[in-house]
Design goal:
This protein is mainly β. It folds into 3 domains: 19-47, no CATH class; 64-97, no CATH class; 100-210, no CATH class. The chain has 1 helix and 15 strands, in the order E-E-E-E-E-E-E-E-E-E-H-E-E-E-E-E.
Amino acid sequence: MVGLGECSVGECPSCDESSKPASSESCGKCGTRTRTVTCGSDGEWVTSVWGSCTGEGVCYPYSTESEPCPAGFTGQKTRACSSSCQWGPWWSNMCKEESHKYVQIGTISKSSTSASGCPDKSQMNCSGNGGSDGSFSCSLDKVGIYSSGPQSLVQEYLQGTSYNYEIINETITAGASCDSPNYVYVSRPSIWVTCSGSGLLTVSGPLYQCQ
């Protein structure tokens, strides 16, 4: 006896194979998900819900991502996802080496009065720039053995700031290339040292920053 909803062997309607739904499909990042497909007693295909996506790669096909270039370079580098959902190499040719230049950001001005008056100009390499009262005027790189006093004034001025600084012997020109971003530089040839007959020692000159 055949029960309700049942059919005898050979009497159940068959499902059309040409219209059978797929039991698997692609998903996500080159993954696959599956489901069961069975023929119902009414001759219609019955499908279960899709399972979870498995076997995925790391990225979506043909997508791209970018990130800043490494330190010392400007721009962004980019890479693309392959058809197999794996990242390709970074396109580093989009990174350009940074070009840093000296920019004048201020002026040093610092004075100090010495009870002993000006140092002996005759012992310094700044001939032709002094008066009979012992006064002189010359660049910091030519003060010679007496450079510790004027240079100390320069350092006192800089220590009152938040700069990372360096005092160098080379002449600096605004717009020239430099290698240490954000550093502040004092060029001894550019710092002018003066001492009056009363012993007032003054240092003045430009401050350059590598930007």
